[in-house]
Amino acid sequence: xxxxxxxxxxxxxxxxxxxxxxxxxxxxxxxxxxxxxxxxxxxxxxxxxxxxxxxxxxxxxxxxxxxxxxxxxxxxxxxxxxxxxxxxxxxxxxxxxxxxxxxxxxxxxxxxxxxxxxxxxxxxxxxxxxxxxxxxxxxxxxxxxxxxxxxxxxxxxxxxxxxxxxxxxxxxxxxxxxxxxxxxxxxxxxxxxxxxxxxxxxxxxxxxxxxxxxxxxxxxxxxxxxxxxxxxxxxxxxxxxxxxxxxxxxxxxxxxxxxxxxxxxxxxxxxxxxxxxxxxxxxxxxxxxxxxxxxxxxxxxxxxxxxxxxxxxxxxxxxxxxxxxxxxxxxxxxxxxxxxxxxxxxxxxxxxxxxxxxxxxxxxxxxxxxxxxxxxxxxxxxxxxxxxxxxxxxxxxxxxxxxxxxxxxxxxxxxxxxxxxxxxxxxxxxxxxxxxxxxxxxxxxxxxxxxxxxxxxxxxxxxxxxxxxxxxxxxxxxxxxxxxxxxxxxxxxxxxxxxxxxxxxxxxxxxxxxxxxxxxxxxxxxxxxxxxxxxxxxxxxxxxxxxxxxxxxxxxxxxxxxxxxxxxxxxxxxxxxxxxxxxxxxxxxxxxxxxxxxxxxxxxxxxxxxxxxxxxxxxxxxxxxxxxxxxxxxxxxxxxxxxxxxxxxxxxxxxxxxxxxxxxxxxxxxxxxxxxxxxxxxxxxxxxxxxxxxxxxxxxxxxxxxxxxxxxxxxxxxxxxxxxxxxxxxxxxxxxxxxxxxxxxxxxxxxxxxxxxxxxxxxxxxxxxxxxxxxxxxxxxxxxxxxxxxxxxxxxxxxxxxx
RNA sequence: GCUGGUGUGGCGGAAUGGUAGACGCAAGGGACUUAAAAUCCCUCGGAGGCAACUCCGUGCCGGUUCGAGUCCGGCCACCAGCACCA
Length: 803
What we know:
Elements: H1 6-19, E1 34-39, H2 54-69, E2 73-75, H3 85-94, H4 98-115, H5 131-146, E3 150-160, E4 164-166, E5 171-172, E6 175-176, E7 184-193, H6 199-204, H7 213-223, E8 225-235, E9 240-245, E10 256-259, H8 264-268, H9 276-288, H10 291-296, E11 304-312, E12 319-324, E13 336-339, H11 345-354, H12 373-376, H13 394-407, E14 411-417, E15 422-423, E16 436-439, E17 443-446, H14 476-479, E18 480-482, E19 489-492, H15 500-503, H16 506-509, H17 522-528, E20 533-535, H18 543-557, E21 570-571, E22 576-577, H19 594-601, H20 603-612, E23 620-621, H21 624-639, E24 644-645, H22 655-670, H23 674-691, E25 694-695, H24 696-706, H25 711-720, E26 745-751, E27 754-761, H26 767-776, H27 778-781, E28 790-794, E29 798-802
Parallel strand pairs: 1-2, 1-20, 10-12, 20-21, 22-23, 24-25, 26-29
Antiparallel strand pairs: 3-4, 3-7, 5-6, 7-15, 8-9, 8-11, 8-14, 10-13, 11-12, 16-17, 16-19, 18-19, 26-27, 28-29
Helix pairs in contact: 1-25, 2-20, 3-4, 19-20, 20-21, 22-23, 22-24, 24-25
The structure holds one RNA strand.
């Protein structure tokens, strides 16, 4: 027997799979059920992949390979999300064009992936920055526009001096999530997608999916639905404004109101405010503050009284002062709040600071702080100091007060969402141009479909501009055009789309990647959607998942997607840290390059260790010795050929071990428990070594079970031992439940709940028989005392004797 | 602060409420070898004991149960996400 020469074997099989197009899949395959296995496509960064990145690829490759062996027609595609800031920033740093950087990175990425023998269908590869792809991203944007879900709106936006305008979702702790620069607020006319119109359904339809509960919860929290009442307050000096509250029962406790400094209401009150200079100064300061600073001041809530302005509480006619304060957000609710210091801690702090009186309206103790809704809801607490509503429970009052205000015509029930509309414009070069044209006569007009894509022009200078305008705006030849409607001279939109655009629908394009008539045909989408198993990073379980679900839901509404929810299940991998427990990074010198590992131990050993390293969803530390251990294991499998004997069914010696392994590996792969699947294979291998003998049928079974994790060595062993049929035609083994029943089991015995030993017994033995065996066991019996009060026998598991 | 998650040997980790530590790493001992590597065998949670064996042990404190790593209540620590959401 020759040694295990993984270099030769792996190169041979990778070439063979590619030559015979083993993993290229058709949308329809006679007699086969379709299965869609998807991994988030990456942005291929210039640093190349490290072993941590491969975890999800090797894991889902195992899933895909197993499903193929089970006779499924499996779509397992891969592509690149190449638009976005990272490519642009690398390009700027290296003084190259993003186009060049991306092409170079993709080549490295593919080379690395191909070395480990992943079974992607590369014929369906896509790339979001390819015009043949973003043509359809643009087309889809136009559908949003045509259905009134995209519009240009003046909004306060997060502005980063390096990266331009950011979506709320891209601001992390008041800083830019890309470059960590402080984010400031700026007013700008932006394209937005009205995602809030789908907020309710995005939360509601989670019940159609099988996501893990924590993923559903994080989506629901992000959407942040709250039901309440919107109430109109008259300003004594003229005018009015509206507030939103979820605690209408506390309306008699209002002692002041607070408006967001940026709100329109404040502007409209300008000529009535007596301390206008002071107010203007406050507004100026607030605008300069980043969200981060605002939050830093959490203990010291800032605000400024609007002198000469009072609001009238519609419930009791009481006049209260009005403040502006930057803890009130213009972007949420109506940008104005009613303040009830007795029942809201934030208002309580604000009132204490400024010696504003409090009115307690719900019974309880407010000496040490506000009695908030979480304190009184559901406790049966009653209202006080609330006019005709005093004496009602909170729950009754909520309803009665709402009814009264509605009948007075000053209120309506309202549902608010924390989730905001999606700011979809970027003043950046490296993105899909937004396919819109502005005409002085016709307003915004979409680029006609037959003129798509609006190609991103090649330019010499694409750096972000200092004033925050798109670099494209400086290119006259791009900007100047004519109106598609009236033919008059017109100007193109120069903003581009955010990085999230192309990734919001890529999983649909895989179904029909070459289609130049449609973004994807309904037939192909019906064939594959919903994605059966979708794997991605934890960091994407809110944003990306929500965006993709939103796009799909809209597509469903306009009849271009066949499903309400695009992803059936969602799983995410834990990251692999360096061996020192810190995130792998070049500067820390703890990066492990898969190419080095492959060179030393081979792709199969690497793949096996990626699966065995630990629980898939947990964070783990890399350990070089693990690869060595897996290499050792594969060598043991290879050397097993020495034990090979004839035989076309499981031998009595190994029947139990094999049936158990089949069951365990099958279930564990289904349950995303790759580490225990591999350990079951190792256990099986140990059993075979103890037996010193393995027949052909048994060896074949072992190879099939191991194949999803170590595809090269298993196909090679299959071939050199001339097993039949050809490996590509074999099917996943079934186990025999009957073979898992043992004649004699070792039954644990507890006396008074303490483990005292085991007895050998038939699984069908009754209580009497077992008790007699226990009594005759010299070790266990000495713990027994008469009388026996109670016996708990769990057949096949345990007996507990109470005496 | 809120939400979610996690806490088990020297390490990575196993355990449908039923023998805690599967599988593997590291370590120690042995066999083979001139030697090393590779391979194979043995030991390997802690304390005590010559031994048979005994007691303790899954972050901490309680509870439910014949029986708790697992369920419940209350803490502590760490990780991640969110950030004044009215």
